[in-house]
């Protein structure tokens, strides 16, 4: 379905009717297709919502700004238009930070928050100006994307079709949207907002994630959301939805079972 947002509209894919609905929010460089493998492991009929965020993929033509508050506003519009009952936000990396902002607003119907290798509310010391400038060039070309995928983003080999989709997605953004996250969003401190999150929260971390290491999430996320639980998925890197889709789906199933009680 098409959802009106500031400056245009988002094409949103919905499926299933068994709630709470899972609303998926992809990483910097991802798309709605990032979640294909996870959806393939969910029970038949599970309600799901996914879309390409502003500036990426099918939403590439949407004008800026592309900052986190705008992404959270877009996410709120998607939820309002596509979800009629309880829902769980499932945010990966950049999408996890945007999801934290929306969860902090305490929207009606929000039943829980699943953060998948999320960017923490408080940026760690490693996020220096030099780091951010380097990161801003990760998706400059097919060659740089392949290098990022093979040497930074993943710790396990991806199936060739999945890898090809990740390369396509990482290149499917305008310069302004591509640079907003590494130059500004990743360094934005949203600690005060995160402290307003009241719903159940679970955090999934990759054992070998070098982008958002387990220790960073322990030190820079859990203090802001102290009721959150942290689960480490073995062997995986930063791209948990494509490296370990079955494990992510299983964790979602456990979380849904808990929030339904």
From TrEMBL:
<feature type="domain" description="Serine aminopeptidase S33">
    <location>
        <begin position="44"/>
        <end position="243"/>
    </location>
</feature>
<dbReference type="InterPro" id="IPR029058">
    <property type="entry name" value="AB_hydrolase_fold"/>
</dbReference>
<dbReference type="InterPro" id="IPR022742">
    <property type="entry name" value="Hydrolase_4"/>
</dbReference>
<protein>
    <submittedName>
        <fullName>Pimeloyl-ACP methyl ester carboxylesterase</fullName>
    </submittedName>
</protein>
<dbReference type="Pfam" id="PF12146">
    <property type="entry name" value="Hydrolase_4"/>
</dbReference>
<dbReference type="InterPro" id="IPR050266">
    <property type="entry name" value="AB_hydrolase_sf"/>
</dbReference>
<dbReference type="InterPro" id="IPR000073">
    <property type="entry name" value="AB_hydrolase_1"/>
</dbReference>
<keyword id="KW-0378">Hydrolase</keyword>
């Amino acid at each position: 379905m098409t959802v009106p947002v500031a400056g245009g509209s988002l094409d949103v894919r919905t499926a299933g009717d068994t709630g709470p609905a899972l609303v998926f929010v992809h990483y910097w460089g991802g798309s709605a297709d990032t979640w294909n493998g996870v959806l393939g492991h969910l029970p038949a009929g599970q309600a799901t919502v996914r879309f390409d965020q502003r500036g990426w993929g099918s939403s590439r033509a949407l004008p800026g700004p592309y900052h986190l508050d705008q992404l959270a506003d877009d996410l709120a519009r998607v939820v309002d238009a596509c979800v009629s009952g309880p829902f769980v936000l499932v945010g990966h990396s950049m999408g996890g930070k945007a999801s934290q902002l929306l969860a902090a607003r305490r929207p009606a119907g929000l039943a829980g928050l699943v953060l998948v290798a999320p960017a923490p509310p408080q940026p760690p010391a490693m996020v220096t100006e030099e780091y951010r400038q380097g990161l801003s060039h990760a998706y400059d070309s097919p060659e740089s994307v392949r290098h990022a995928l093979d040497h930074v983003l993943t710790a396990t080999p991806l199936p060739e079709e999945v890898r090809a989709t990740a390369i396509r997605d990482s290149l499917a953004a305008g310069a302004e949207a591509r640079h907003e996250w590494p130059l500004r969003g990743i360094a934005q401190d949203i600690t005060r907002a995160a402290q307003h999150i009241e719903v159940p929260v679970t955090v999934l971390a990759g054992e070998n994630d070098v982008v958002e290491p387990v220790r960073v999430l322990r030190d820079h996320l859990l203090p802001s959301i102290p009721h959150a639980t942290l689960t480490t998925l073995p062997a995986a890197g930063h791209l948990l939805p494509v490296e370990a889709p079955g494990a992510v789906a299983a964790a979602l199933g456990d979380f849904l079972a808990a929030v339904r009680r």
